[in-house]
Amino acid sequence: MARIVMKFGGTSMAGTERIRRVANIVRRQQAAGHEVAVVVSAMAGETDRLVNFCREANALYDPAEYDVVVASGEQVTSGLLALTLQSLGCKARSWLGWQMPINTVEAHSKARVQTIDAPELLDSLGRGEIAVIPGFQGVSSENRITTLGRGGSDTSAVAVAAAIGADRCDIYTDVDGVYTTDPRIVAKARKQKAVTYEEMLELASVGAKVLQTRSVGLAMKEGVRIQVLSSFLGDDAPPADDLPGTLIVSDTEMDAILEEGEMERQHVTGIAHDKNEAKIILTRVPDKPGAVANIFEPLAGASINVDMIIQNVGRDKGETDVTFTVPQTDLARAQALLEDQRGNIGFNRIITDDHIAKISVVGVGMKSHAGVASTMFKSLADRAINIQAITTSEIKVSVIIDEDETELAVRVLHTAYGLDAAE
Ligand code: ASP
Ligand code: MG
């Protein structure tokens, strides 16, 4: 017997028909002899609808009341799933955020889980009851409802799994696993049997939007084993114990999986692309201490996330060009802020470009293998794809290229690193 957390997203919960399918998947998982807790999202589109109501009611809405409104979507789906499970003859009940409770910090609309007290829930699981837990919500020390930020029910699921010492946290979603790259771009993309937390964190942060990035960070910290798998299952699909999806695991478990000889460790595990960034170049910035701080302090103050930064080699007159990227949605704001600070920073021109893409190759294998970056540069050069900026971490190399070349670059790299599926 194992203890399993199952999480279903908004698409799976959209309407009673789909909830019935979810209930069947849950019922079969329990019938395989396990203790089962289920974490659910609101029906697809519901949270957006609720956010809009808040805006209409009061443009300057109080985040505490916003949380009361938006948390309701998950209350509805958790109750409906419990009802549906009961109709199938299962023992099931819902556990709202304040009932477990899931204690979070006070920060309304972007709360973080602090502790989860689960003794009663564990008793209930022990009696063979299925626990249905609304994702996304918690309770603050002031005894008010909080929410964890958009996409937060992945994090709820991982937090619950950690709290009850689950053997596995299965995240059912609209893809059937983590691929070597976007299968819509590369037909020969392969589904991975396993990736490490570190790899998943890097992949999530560069555009592979399978899970909320925060949930992966939490899983790594708490050692929660995640499986990503498809919720579009046939009605006779077996329970997920034979691991049909992709496991997200520690380095140690990854080594064990590799030793079983099921696969070889690749230097590069995945290739991600992200078209949501924009590039800003400031020309002729004074090349002196404090100049770069003057640029990035105001951006940080406005919560604008800067990703890549390149300072060119200084020119003769004590000046240099500084290039960096920001999310496309923040470009106008960043530009206005910088214009505002022109006197303080001291630059000549702002050049912006939102027609760029970031391509990243990710893999823990890079730590012990040289030549990954040079393979990337050479492969792109062979196709005359120009690299505008580069950043690296221990397990990732990212480049900025022209957005029009995204698909070509991803395909070329997928082949270059030997990731293409055999014909
Ligand atoms: N319903 C929330 C949202 O749409 C949380 C989630 O589904 O993860 O952001
Ligand atoms: Mg989601």
Automatic annotation (TrEMBL):
CDD domains: AAK_AKii-LysC-BS, ACT_AKii-LysC-BS-like_1, ACT_AKii-LysC-BS-like_2. Substrate binds at T47, E74. Keywords: Amino-acid biosynthesis, ATP-binding, Kinase, Lysine biosynthesis, Nucleotide-binding, Transferase. It comes from the Bacteria. Residues 280-364 form the ACT domain. GO terms for molecular function: aspartate kinase activity; ATP binding. Signal peptide: none annotated. Pathway: Amino-acid biosynthesis; L-methionine biosynthesis via de novo pathway; L-homoserine from L-aspartate: step 1/3; Amino-acid biosynthesis; L-lysine biosynthesis via DAP pathway; (S)-tetrahydrodipicolinate from L-aspartate: step 1/4; Amino-acid biosynthesis; L-threonine biosynthesis; L-threonine from L-aspartate: step 1/5. InterPro entries: AceGlu_kinase-like_sf, ACT-like_dom_sf, ACT_Aspartokinase, ACT_dom, AKii-LysC-BS, Asp/Glu/Uridylate_kinase, Asp_kin_monofn, Asp_kinase. ATP binds at K7, F8, G9, G10, T173, D174, Y179, R184, K209, V210. It is an enzyme of class 2 (transferase). Its EC number is 2.7.2.4. It catalyses: L-aspartate + ATP = 4-phospho-L-aspartate + ADP. Pfam families: AA_kinase, ACT, ACT_9. This is Aspartokinase. The lineage of its organism: Bacteria, Pseudomonadati, Pseudomonadota, Alphaproteobacteria, Sphingomonadales.
